[in-house]
Amino acid sequence: MDINAIARKFTDFYYQTFDTERHGLALLYKDESMLTWEGQQILGVNAIIEKLTTLPFGKVQHQISTVDAQPSVPNTANLIVSVTGFLLVDEDSNPIRYSQAFHLVSSDGGYYVYNDIFRLNYG
């Protein structure tokens, strides 16, 4: 399968789940997964989901601008996915720019997030 199609399918699922039921993202992480959220490193699926479900906003909507993908390791199905876009948070009408990078590792016929780096882009 085309890595760009995999990246698009993954990001569509990830952000739809994030925006509607963040607990559901637990399916995408494992104990060895790491999230860096605004510089804070968080290791393991339970700690990652704890962070994502306790963010200081109730409602969020991601608007994806770009999705780029590259293979990450020769002779494997692993890939790197880079995403840019905008967030609408709660009732705020001013979108916030963000960027996020995922290292997806092939496992059991699917993928899981090994690394996830998220940053708000101000200015």
Structure, explained:
With 123 residues, the chain is of the alpha+beta class. It is 22% helix and 49% strand. It contains 2 helices and 6 strands, in the order αββαββββ. The chain has helices spanning 3-20, 45-53, and strands spanning 29-37, 40-43, 60-71, 79-89, 96-107, 110-121. A 6-stranded mixed β-sheet has the order 2-1-6-5-4-3, with helices on one face. The longest helix is centred in the first third of the chain and has 18 residues, at 3-20. The mean pLDDT is 94.
Key structural traits:
single chain; 123 residues; alpha+beta; six-stranded mixed sheet; 22% helix
Strand sequence of the main sheet, in spatial order?
2-1-6-5-4-3
Give the % helix: 10-25%
Q: Mind telling me the C-alpha Rg? A: 14 Å
Q: Could you say which overall geometry the principal axes of the C-alpha atoms support?
A: globular
What's the story with the biggest beta sheet?
Answer: 6 strands, mixed
Low-pLDDT runs: none
Q: Ends: how far apart?
A: 38 Å
What proportion strand? over 45%
Structural class: alpha+beta
How many alpha or pi helices? 2
